[in-house]
Design goal:
alpha/beta, Immunoglobulin-like, 8-stranded parallel β-barrel, 5-stranded antiparallel β-sheet, 14 helices, 29 strands, elongated
Length: 576
């Protein structure tokens, strides 16, 4: 039986013992508050730590595997012998790419990594460049969105565990698809969070999801290292091509070197070591261009950032919705302003926040490809009261217009699973907390939150009801049927246009020209010789562009000076 060194950082307890398959072993505390013990252990040993006189065996904060859930012992894990076949994978930059966000548990009926592999050829045929998986770290229960992770180093076992993730990433690389992993470092979930028993992982502050992570108070150095090592692990050990970093505005860092800058530097060093590009994409609601400004120019060095302003501008202009944070959006002028400048709120007053918000983006220095444009994300569907998609409220033509505005823009583009065929499945908020009190609080809190905004509480799906999870699964039998198939072909053609037309690759917003008529409801985005002419109204309209039709939702009528575009339709023309 081989020897194995076990180690855990635990400054809080006075005594730490190691449990290996039910046998206790003493551990020695170092000056750095790391406890260590070297014992004989099988390669698949179950182990954990006993703190002081509490008999509960706690999982390893850096657990490589949690086969029995987040409340039980960890398990030693090493990849199966030679699992990788991607030695020829050269990687790719995320800038200018098309990203496809999916939730492993609802992407397929079985909800596993291996079942995602079975659908990868669909994504290849669609033309996307990256698969972005919602969080796959270990969290309480069998199913959930994944943002309540408590053991960040382990892979959620019901999805297939760490070996399943390796198979997925390897299969993606074999097909030319990059992989991004959604990583959550701004809070810990409520079920199975034992980290505070070991050390000062949490700060005195809080955010909407719970207590904040300690990245700037006493004891923060090891907590920062915990975050950095976890992030690098996804890219080094699991060959991910980058990370989507959840809600980075909730990472409150008062130190001189922000943790995102530190992570950016270490990611670049790992990319040099591996010989392939690695990308960090920030989710932030701050509209702060410093996130995507290179470190050498005083920024934090993120490769890209989600841009909700673009989503809001497109969605409201097409749908007419105005509630909540959509209140400042909705006009074609707002849509134009947002697409031309990256942010709509760039030091302007936000009625939703009731204060000024954002900072202008230097469009001559920062390419548009550092911002992600999308018409859907898990948030923009799942955080609606009943998790309804635009496909449940808009015409297929309106969905085509939204797709053309996002995929035809100079920005890096992103789709949410099923968007490409107008999936009829909602994406609702679901959880499976095993603790009855937590389960009840989650369900009641969800109903109370939306009831305060005027919804009938009885209409709000119960997150803990297994049917809420089942309803959210994609229905793949829709793909080849009727308007579903027609929209899918339109998406394929749009993405192909992005990849083949040189004018579509221009990343500079200063080169983007937009014309619109607020009253007539037409909107034209010019990409070099290409004109993306959208009719957001229900009636046909004459748009002052002409040329050869490259792609259209409904066949337009091209005249000498104008082109008639049907209601809720779009035509892309090339100037003669």
């Amino acid at each position: 039986m081989p020897e194995h060194e076990f180690a855990v950082w635990a400054p809080r307890p006075e005594r730490v013992r190691l449990d290996v398959d039910g046998t206790l072993h003493p551990m020695t505390r170092g000056d750095d508050d790391w406890w260590r013990a070297t014992v004989d252990a099988p390669a698949d040993a179950r182990y954990g730590f006993v703190l002081d006189d509490d008999p509960k065996v706690l999982p390893d904060p850096r657990s490589p595997r949690q086969p029995d859930g987040v409340h039980e012992r960890s398990q030693l894990w090493r990849p199966q012998a030679d699992p990788w076949t991607d030695s020829g994978w050269q990687g790719r930059s995320v800038e200018g790419a098309v990203v496809y966000e999916l939730h492993v548990g609802t992407f397929t009926p079985g909800g596993t990594f291996d079942m995602v592999v079975d659908k990868l050829d669909h994504l290849v045929g669609l033309g996307v460049d990256f698969v972005e998986v919602m969080p796959v770290n270990a969290f309480g229960g069998t199913h959930g969105w994944g943002y309540d992770g408590v053991l960040w180093y382990a892979v959620h076992e019901p999805y297939g565990g760490p070996d399943g993730l390796i198979r997925l990433v390897d299969a993606c690389h074999a097909r030319g698809l990059g992989v991004l992993i959604d990583a959550v470092f701004n809070h810990l979930g409520p079920s199975g969070n034992y980290l505070p028993k070991f050390g000062p992982y949490l700060s005195s502050g809080s955010n909407p999801w719970g207590e904040s992570i300690n990245i700037g108070d006493a004891g923060a150095d090891e907590v920062r290292r915990y975050i950095l090592d976890c992030a690098l692990r996804w890219m080094r050990d699991f060959h991910a091509d980058g990370l989507r970093l959840d809600a980075v505005h909730a990472l409150v860092d008062t130190t001189a070197i922000h943790i995102l800058e530190e992570l950016s530097a270490e990611t670049d060093a790992l990319a040099d070591e591996l010989g392939r590009p690695l990308s960090l994409i920030a989710e932030s609601d701050m509209n702060d261009p410093r996130l995507i400004t290179p470190r050498e120019h005083g920024g934090l060095g993120m490769a890209a950032q989600w841009d909700d302003d673009i989503h809001h501008a497109i969605h409201t202009a097409v749908s007419g919705e105005r509630q909540g944070y959509y209140g400042d959006f909705g006009t074609l002028e707002t849509l134009s302003e947002t697409l031309r400048h990256g942010y709509f709120h760039a030091g302007s007053y936000s009625s939703f926040r009731r204060r000024r918000h954002g900072r202008p983006l230097d469009t001559a220095a920062v390419p548009a490809t550092r911002l992600l444009a999308y018409t859907l994300t898990h948030d923009q569907v799942g955080n609606r009261a009943v998790g309804d998609r635009p496909s449940q409220n808009l015409t297929t033509g309106q969905l085509a217009v939204k797709a053309a505005l996002a995929l035809g823009s100079p920005y890096t583009a992103m789709l949410f699973m099923g968007e490409e065929w107008a999936s009829s499945s909602p994406f609702q908020f679901f959880s499976s907390h095993p603790e009855p009190e937590l389960a009840r609080a989650t369900a009641e809190g969800r109903k109370r939150e939306f009831a305060e905004h005027g919804w009938d509480a009885d209409e709000i799906p119960d997150p803990q009801d297994p049917e809420t999870f089942e309803r959210s699964k994609l229905q793949w039998d829709e793909v080849g049927v009727g308007d579903h198939a027609r929209l899918l072909e339109f998406y394929r053609s749009l993405i192909a246009l992005r990849h083949t037309e040189p004018d579509m690759a221009d990343p500079w917003l200063d080169h983007l020209k937009i014309d619109f008529d607020e009253h007539a409801r037409w909107f034209v985005m010019h990409r070099g010789a290409l004109a993306i002419a959208c009719n957001l109204g229900a009636d046909p309209v004459d748009v002052p562009v002409t040329g050869d039709v490259v792609l259209a939702w409904d066949e337009p009528t091209v005249g000498v000076d104008t082109t008639r575009v049907g209601g809720h339709s779009v035509a892309i023309l090339r100037a003669a």
